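Supplementary Methods, section 5.1.

A reviewer requested that the exact input to the structure prediction be made available. We therefore reproduce it here, unchanged from the version used in the analyses.
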Amino acid sequence: MAEHTSSSITIEAAPADVMAVIADFARYPDWTGEVKEAEVLATDAQGRAERVRLVMDAGAIKDDQTLAYTWTGADKVSWTLVKSQMLRSLDGSYALRPAGTGATEVTYQLTVDVKIPMLGMIKRKAEKVIIDRALAGLKKRVESGPEQEPVQESVQESGQEPAQESGQE
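The structure derived from this sequence is encoded cell-by-cell as follows.
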C-alpha cells in the first residue's frame, strides 16, 4: 500500500465558506500556484464537480490530468486520478472540521505515484510541498473573503430601500 502525506491548517472561516472555495474549480488558477487551467467536465445532481480537468505547471513537472471527485457530506471531498501524462496514480482529500468559533481545521491528504522513477523520500517531500502550498493558498483565499459583489441582507423583501453606507452606491 502506498504511503500518504497529510497536513492540517486552521482557517478563520466557517466550514461551508472553506468548502465553497474548494468546490470553485474555475477559480483555482487565481489562488493555486500550480493550476493554470481548470475545467469541470461533469457534475452530480447537486451541481458539484464529479470530473475535473486540470492543467498543472509545477516548474519541472507539467501535466494535463483528469480527476474524479467524491463528495462526502458537507465536510469532505476526495479525488482520484482518471488520466494523466506524468502520474501513475493520485489520491487526495480535504477533510473539514469546526475548530472553535468561526474557524475550520482543514486536513489535506495526498498520495502520488509518478511514472518516472523517484525515491520514496523525495516523493513524500514533493507531496509535502504540494500540500503546504495548497493549504497556504486556500487559507489566504478564504480569509481574504469573496471577490464578488457583497451580498445585501434581504431588506428589499419588506419593500424598504437598503440604507446607503459611505463608499457604496
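The longest strand covers residues 61-72. These observations are discussed further in the main text.
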